[in-house]
């Protein structure tokens, strides 16, 4: 900034800012920049697109709907809500090695986990282990604050109450004999949810913390007994519970159930026949929902998603085409810069 | 209300609060207001309620308050904080600003109110605060002090019972004005017993009527008339006088100064009207969105199983609520959810932009004038952008187009022309050589010459300052008079000054003395002034000078013929002409006149009219001596400025009180009229030719001109603006009298018809000259144009008190800090030192301001549309449950933090075309004419862009979420991840869109644009990185960081940002080969420069 002539008092400051003469870069989007720029972007996009598409193609996905709408399907018998502890079994075949690690998802359709009231219906303080909120859960949990005997529900609210409670046992059929595929239930929820956001009260045994409270109405077992096999996987940091509590964005969603990473199946599911034994508890037909299981492996770009690759290819080609069109236009009208 | 009936139109003041011994009963003096000046609006106590009330009277603030209240009362998707915080912020900022301004006013008030003054109590001066002065107090004022209230001058320390004041702070006239004590008042004020009866306070600074009754023991009360010459105004300063005593007549808020500072009308800019129109559209969008969602919600819930799925049971209260009430609250909830589409922050940003932006005008050193040592002044920042929209400029002539710096050029005595040759030397001053009047053809008689020069020396109100100064200076209210007196000086007649009614003239070496009997003051209606003097020999003479039109009817016809030619020739050369006449008054005549004048001066009612009548009666039967020609030089660069304005497509009209010939020559000199311009005259002269009735002739002329300019013009057919070359240019001249006929035609049907014809003629002429205009007529013209079809934006520029009316009337009023006082400046919206500054003010500043604010407004609507559209679309995927897509923090901070600074910086700094280029290419100005950037097509373009972006953001991410397993560890993302991805794309796109539009990247732009993006990223990491104890739900905990861990998310964000901006990048490239776009002009310019230099 230049300063000069301080003599007269009323004279405005002669600075670059006050005179609106700050040095400025004045970019002009000319054809000379845009056309090569577009070619470059286009080529880069095509490259990424090809990579994405190839990757996506290599990802294997298998979906099995087990809602049991058809009378012929094995789970049809369980759709009757009067039947309790219904189990059904679905058999399927894998033609070639399903490369590992294989991720085992369950999926729900037409299920609005993103209802506003539903989403708000939980008590974050309770879920972070604050015992004060065990006795008086937040009003957002309505209508699942207290049971008919006026005992507080922990964990309260609609989300917890509606937790997905089908369970699956996957077996490989080897010569007619079933070999149970070990399922890994760790690391299916966000690390931060498991370690920071959700906390159990620091009372051992955990059961004591729940004294005077009741389990959510739809739950078969209280929160401290969600995983009988692993005591550390109970309460609010039960992995299945955490996965459920992270609300899906859209009405058709899937959630990670287990990973197949152990034993003979660390490299994936070998080709062969498999049987999936389902403990069918979760009713979806009342609101015209569907249930499915999905086996998938993932790559650097996550799960299978053709959209990204195609979009990149289309945009990339579009850029290249546009630059050719522009070139023609400018050849006709002459480059204004070379006038 | 407290006053009785007879006191309604006048007030009675008891000097020194002494009751009068007169027979009439002592009426207890009614309470007048005290001398406290209150310009402040608030007190500490009423600030909060009053300010809040005023703020919520603004429709926008009220709307946001309603939204806030709905959020508090109804169970809505977003917390009241999201709309309460911005509203609170806006209200607080405005309140602080207004509070600060009011504090400044309080401070200024206090300074005035606590100013120490001396009030006479029992004959002794007592120190008091200024605010304690009451009406009737006798106040003592010393030299160089300002008067604390309006005073009637009772006593002066000067021998001649006069005092001098300057009213510089009132009307800017820095000359000394003489005021007179009330004649025959007692020297001893203690024993003075008198009342003053005067009119109720009124704002006219130059009018005052009153009467003073002086009661002396055992005598009939003497009555003295009081006029403005007896009244000392608050705010004026005492000069050249040691001290005076005066009685307070008007105090505090009733002083003329206070009355004058009130009631400046609020002007609103067209941009604001556009904003309101757009706002209405957005309000409709908002309402329809809410309506659509509410309807669909109930349609959706009608489907089996969807009203209340088992996993989302209703609460008891919901079940109990009435269906219609539920619908209504749902509607309100949707309103609240989408209300961000109408941003609170836009108002703040627009106000800030206007306020901060206006500094650039005051800061511009090109507006600095070293002569008056001042730069431009901004009185209102509301109209910055209007400067870029001006279609009509109405300019005053004297002092605006011309310098108002008069120089005596030539004179004419008895038809013989005398021209002064400056060639010899400046020493050729007074008295050294006699008779340097170089004879051009012949000389008039020696006696006539002397008479003429004496007339010039005597017929004026010029003062000679008492303090001897190095150069002989004169002080007068009109520069013409000084020019005339100086002119006479050159010829050997020097005016020495006026001392106790005696005028002294130094003629060669003799001193001539004249007794000044009466001054018949100048006024713009009579357009002349006279003095009556008595010579040593006892003759009574009347000298009169004035405009030819006012003198010629009052002198003998044969004398007129000799002089008229000269006057007209001088006028066509652009000189101001005055005619000088004289008359010998016989003793009876004088006595009659004297009586008449004195009577009229005493009149309490209609004094002006009575005086004028007497003046007219006295100023008859004179004999014409000669005429003078005074040159008023053009302002610097007046012609260039006018040319630039016309080049910019602005129509320039000259409105002047001057005579047609003079004004016409000024127009030629300013190149408003060119040599090939065909002049159409509608003046008294053309109306009276051919000896027809004026009305018929008017009709005929109007039709003829209309045919010429409108019907036959190729311009009319192509409907193109006026700067295309090759067409016949027309100039239109109209005078005040003809204008009156046009506007107030005898029959009503004609009036509107004539008005239309007149307007159409004017609009098709390149320049219009209106001469012989009274101040009110100037305003009438401006109003006529302002309200014509298409309501064009008008600008008035002037420097004198006679321009105030048109300055106030026009959309934008510009005052010139000229010589005719400060009234124009005070009433203007912007004040500049010189006419030449108008060019930069309009072409550069105005253009840039308009582009900046237009872009600001469009951008604001756009960015909020693409902000809220995804949230609207999300409703289709969440069962219309009013689930917000974005976290509350993002909803709140989007407009306040993430996207506000770049646009503010842009709207302050952008120069899409450089200032120099704008000044060189006046035609660029017409590119943005007629509110080009804020009309419906650009608005629709921006809206479509916003819709496109909104759709792209939502569905792009929707497609990405076709598979929820986005990170490479197979875990899934939830709804907040979805919203955060959309929001991130949104913030980046919207900011980069602005970056694309920015043509002028200073370091500030770089800083705020990249800074905002960095701030967004850092904030998101921080906001999601900590468990915030004050939040009930940690929705965003690690959502942003997790989002960044997914490659697919990165790729989709890059893709969407690029795809959104693609059309914006492509459009200018594809558009460029066609049409003379502004940008190309710049390119061409730089190219030609490189070619030729």
From TrEMBL, chain A:
Biological processes per GO annotation: phospholipid translocation
Pfam families: CDC50
Main location: membrane
Locations listed in the record: Membrane
GO CC entries: endoplasmic reticulum; Golgi apparatus; plasma membrane
Key words of the record: Membrane, Transmembrane, Transmembrane helix
Annotated transmembrane regions: 28-54, 310-331
Database matches in InterPro entries: CDC50/LEM3_fam
Family label: Belongs to the CDC50/LEM3 family.
PANTHER family: CELL CYCLE CONTROL PROTEIN 50 (PTHR10926), CELL CYCLE CONTROL PROTEIN 50B (PTHR10926:SF19)
Protein name in the entry: Cell cycle control protein
Protein encoded by which gene: tmem30b
TrEMBL record, chain B:
EC number: 7.6.2.1
All residue ranges annotated as the P-type ATPase A domain in the record: 115-257
Enzyme class per UniProt: translocase
Cell location: Cell membrane; Early endosome; Endoplasmic reticulum membrane; Membrane
Membrane topology, from the record: Multi-pass membrane protein
Residues that hold ATP according to the record: 396-398, 481, 522, 545, 576, 656-658, 772, 778, 802-803
Keywords, sorted A to Z: ATP-binding, Cell membrane, Endoplasmic reticulum, Endosome, Lipid transport, Magnesium, Membrane, Metal-binding, Nucleotide-binding, Phosphoprotein, Translocase, Transmembrane, Transmembrane helix, Transport
SUPFAM superfamilies, A to Z: Calcium ATPase, transduction domain A, Calcium ATPase, transmembrane domain M, HAD-like, Metal cation-transporting ATPase, ATP-binding domain N
Molecular function GO terms recorded: ATP binding; ATP hydrolysis activity; ATPase-coupled intramembrane lipid transporter activity; magnesium ion binding
Cofactors demanded by this protein: Mg(2+)
GO biological process: phospholipid translocation
Record's keyword annotation contains Secreted: no
Assigned GO CC terms: early endosome; endoplasmic reticulum membrane; plasma membrane; recycling endosome
A Pfam family this chain is assigned to: PhoLip_ATPase_N
Stretches that traverse the bilayer: 56-74, 277-300, 331-350, 889-909, 939-961, 976-995, 1007-1030, 1050-1070
InterPro entries according to UniProt: ATPase_P-typ_cyto_dom_N, ATPase_P-typ_P_site, ATPase_P-typ_TM_dom_sf, ATPase_P-typ_transduc_dom_A_sf, ATPase_P-type_domA, HAD-like_sf, HAD_sf, P-type_ATPase_IV
Boundaries of every P-type ATPase N-terminal domain copy: 30-83
Family according to the record: Belongs to the cation transport ATPase (P-type) (TC 3.A.3) family. Type IV subfamily.
Name used for this protein in its record: Phospholipid-transporting ATPase
Lineage: Eukaryota, Metazoa, Chordata, Craniata, Vertebrata
